[in-house]
Amino acid sequence: MPAPRIQLLALAPLVLASVVAAAPRPASACGGTFCDGGGGPQVMPVDQTGESILFVVEDGWVEAHVQIDYRGDPAQFAWLVPIPLPEGAEVEISVGSQALFDRLLAGTVPTFALSSSFEGDCNDGPPQIGCAASEDALASGDGGDFIDEDTPPDGPSVLTRDVAGAYEYAVLQGGTADGVGQWLDDNGFARDDDAPEILQTYLDEGFSFVAFKLRAGTGLDQIHPVVLRYPGDEPCVPLRLTRIAAIEDMQIRAFFLGDARMVPTNYRHVELNPLRFDWLGLGSNYDALVGEAIDQEGADGRAFVTEYAGSSVVVPTAGLRGLAWSSEAFLEATDATLSSTLRAQGLIACDSSTDPFTGEPIEGNCGLAHPLLMGLLRTYLPAPIGVAEQEFYLCSECYGGVDLSTWDLPGFAAALEEQVIGPAEHAVDVLVDNEYLTRLYTIMSPGEMTSDPLFHERSDLLGVTSQWTSTNRVFHCEENDRLELGNSVRIYLDDNDQPPDFEGMSAALRIEEIPLSGAPVVLLDATEESQAMLADWNDAHDPRGCDCRTSGRARGAGWFGLLMLLGLHSRSRRRIARS
Q: What is residue 401's three-state secondary structure?
């Protein structure tokens, strides 16, 4: 059987997006789904399926945190990351925090909310509102250590071989595409036919490569984000290499922590047209609209949408690092004390509720409170043969027959420090030290990944909110229902209570280039065209008729209200104390 293709990701100067399973999987909403069945507001975060990367740029260094989502055979995980590493410089590689990504996603997810009100004589009572919901190649390698042998004449220099948590890695510099390819072949990486040309391009531009594998014996529950830190001042996502293994319509989400808003340098910037959202479906067409807007003429498939830009305090630091965490406490652990030590540090968590009749607490399900903990316990402190692991670690004192000679307490303490405690402390530091957070999003296919997006800071641009919360559906029992956006723009529904599809309307309200300084260069402004199409629709469906049509000046004021709904408002950049 031929080896599957290596995943050549692209990230800050690295590989982004997709260490993913070969088999398709359904999208999952990371932010949760909330629904109110009555007249109260309905809230829906958009689907956050896709891969994410966080950049922190400060003091002449770029730090890239990469979220890795891999669900295949652990022995076949391999990953090649290009980075712009100057000759003589070093890259620092460490374990990242999944909890940081979870909080970044949850704190900035675009969220649609729809409230309701009633007008007219409704003798039959208010209608029941349903809950809207949306549903939305592989790396290779044979596992084990990298081969330690002489490098071929045109091969790369191996600057570093080391481990970081669940990964072993080698830093490669120089050589030719054929030489790098031979090294990859020798170390179990299956190459794509298009790889040599792309590899040579990166080599000509002075890029180095970091080759990752999972350490032998590592399970999927031990995969974690990775942090790469190297000299530089310009974040970049090298998508040219990513396209080898990219899927169609790949979702790419980039976060930036710094002092001000980040914008694309060589890619276009797109503002979505709010009239095209499926408001009744709570933005269920969000991704489709993003894809359509980015593919429009002017954006040409290479653009980003700003989903949030503002204070980083929307990402809470409280709870990122357990106050009671201590790796040293496990150095003397036994089967009689292991579970109690985990509980004392909050590494075992239980859901609890209260009996509605007696008021007494009811203890619910308990589990390990960190995603990497089970893998570490299994590796360093194995459960007795024949005992379910989860049950043992939740109550180690309940079982006998543990062969403590199989336990590696120093190894567990060191791994806990490296993979759990240290990354959590660093996550807190980067959030506290950087007051401004930007979240950019794009959807691209391999054929569009012909250039690497770069980004720069603009402190004079306004912030962008992620909350689309000023939408109201007015149920009118005598006339057509309507939507009110920001209390300024009205969209009437037709006789079947359906909104306009506006398929001929631009998905992008604005497409622009944002230079290093000065006003953005507007390539498309669909405001007037969209306003006219809305006016024509409302003329045909407003039961009051044309006599009630607002003047052009009034409509302009209403459109300004809609722009305010988009969140294009000034945000204070004052540091706010964190809890």
A: coil
Query: What does DSSP assign to residue 328?
Result: G
Is residue 522 within 8 Å of residue 512, measured between CB atoms? yes
**Beta-strand pair 250-258/436-444:** antiparallel
Largest separation between any pair of C-alpha atoms in the chain: 88
Neighbours of 411 (CB within 10 A): 13
Q: Which residues are paired to 114 by β-bridges?
A: 42, 471
Contacts of residue 539, Cβ cutoff 8 Å, sequence gap at least 6:
545, 546, 549
Q: Model pTM?
A: 0.81
Return the structure tokens found at 369. Answer: 């409170």
pLDDT of residue 147: 61
3-state secondary structure of 336: coil
Is residue 95 within 8 Å of 165, Cβ to Cβ?
A: yes
Q: CA-CA distance, 425 to 427, in Å (whole number)?
A: 5
Mean pLDDT of 267-289: 93
- Residue 507: C-alpha distances to residues 43, 171, 524 (Å): 23, 43, 11
Contact residues for 258 (Cβ-Cβ < 8 A; gap 6+): 56, 57, 58, 434, 436, 438, 457
Q: Report angle CA 446, 450, 452 to the nearest 5 degrees.
A: 110
Report the run of H or E that residue 561 belongs to, with start and end.
helix 552-565
| Helix, coil or strand: residue 247 | coil
Per residue in 186-229, pLDDT tens? 887 767 777 888 899 999 999 999 999 988 888 888 889 999 99
d(CA 155, CA 151): 6
553/439 Cα distance (integer angstroms): 34
Supply the DSSP symbol for 174: S
Torsion-angle region of 518 (φ positive above 0: left; ψ -120 to 50: alpha; else: beta): left
